[in-house]
Amino acid sequence: MATIFSMIVAGDIPSYKVAENDQFYAFLDINPLAKGHTLVIPKREVDYFFDLTDEEIAAMQVFAKHVAAAIKEAFPCKKVGQAVLGLEVPHAHIHLVPMQSEKDMLFSNPKLKLTPEEFKAIAEAIANKFV
Ligand code: AMP
Predict the structure, then answer these.
(1) Mutate to test the pocket of ligand 1, among 3, 15, 84, 89 (most ligand atoms within 8 A of CB)
(2) What does R_g of the chain's alpha carbons equal in angstroms?
(3) What pTM, to 2 d.p., does this model score?
(4) pLDDT in 10s for each residue of the chain, 131 residues
(5) Backbone angles phi, psi at 25, to 5 degrees
(6) Relative to the CA of 27, which ligand 1 atom is closest?
C-alpha cells in the first residue's frame, strides 16, 4: 500500500505543490506551524529518513536548500528552520518552517487554519521564487 505522500507524488491525492525535480517533491504541510511551512519528500518511498542512501540525503538537502531560499524570499523571516520527525507519516520528509523565533519550531504549537485559497496563494508565492 502506497503512503499518502506517494499518492500525492502520483497525483492521486491533491497537494499544494511548491517545487519538484526528478527525485524530490515539495508541497505545503496541510497543518502548518507558519505560513510557508513546507514538506520536502523523496519520490522513492522510504519510511525512515536515515534509511535513505548517502547520495539521496545529500541531494535532498540541496533541493531543500533551494526550497528554503524560496520560502524565505516569499515569507520574510529570521531563518527557515528544518526538522525531521516522521512519527505520523511513514514516508521520509523534511519540514521547512519560516521562523521568527525558536518557538515557531514547536510542533506542539496550535496549527494555522488556512482556506484553500490561502494555501494556493502561499504555494504559488514560494513556487515563483524557486530557482
Ligand atoms: P510527521 O510524520 O510527524 O513529521 O508529521 C507529518 C506531517 O505531514 C504533519 O505535519 C501533517 O500535517 C503533514 N501531512 C499529513 N498529511 C498531509 C497531506 N495530505 N498534505 C500535506 N501535509 C500532510
Answers:
(1) 89
(2) 14
(3) 0.98
(4) 899 999 999 999 999 999 999 999 999 999 999 999 999 999 999 999 999 999 999 999 999 999 999 999 999 999 999 999 999 999 999 999 999 999 999 999 999 999 999 999 999 999 999 99
(5) -140, 135
(6) 21
